[in-house]
Specification:
single chain, about 120 residues, mainly alpha, 6 helices, about 60% helix, disordered N terminus
């Protein structure tokens, strides 16, 4: 499925480049993850996530994250950080976030859970 998504029309490649630029910007703004992660910071990070993960949950190429609970999001981010999940983009994103930032975005997303309608 990954090959078909990547070769479909180049949109996914553009999204990956956009996400990498965004991740780099976050890393430059918050070097070393030394900024205290609070609710508004979690919301800012979640807004960056929404650039690829369709907030409506209807995205087909990239899995939705709006219906995940806090612990699941944290687990996924740790898996990406440890390269236990196969996404180079998410690996880079997970490495760019501190533990506090991962927890803040997970709390924000879980607090704003949107239950998807069945297809």
């Amino acid at each position: 499925m990954t090959e078909s998504v990547l070769s479909a029309n180049g949109e996914t490649k553009h999204q990956i480049h956009s996400l990498l630029r965004l991740s780099l910007s976050l890393a430059l703004l918050f070097p070393g993850g030394s900024v205290a992660a609070d609710a508004s910071h979690g919301a800012q990070i979640a807004a960056a996530c929404a650039s690829c993960h369709d907030p409506s949950g209807r995205g087909h190429a990239i899995p939705p994250i709006t219906s995940l609970d806090e612990q699941t999001i944290i687990k996924f981010m740790h898996n990406y950080r440890a390269s236990e999940s196969s996404s180079h983009v998410m690996h880079a994103v997970a490495l760019s976030l501190s533990e506090e930032e991962i927890a803040a975005v997970a709390r924000h997303l879980a607090a704003n859970v949107r239950h998807r309608d069945p297809p």
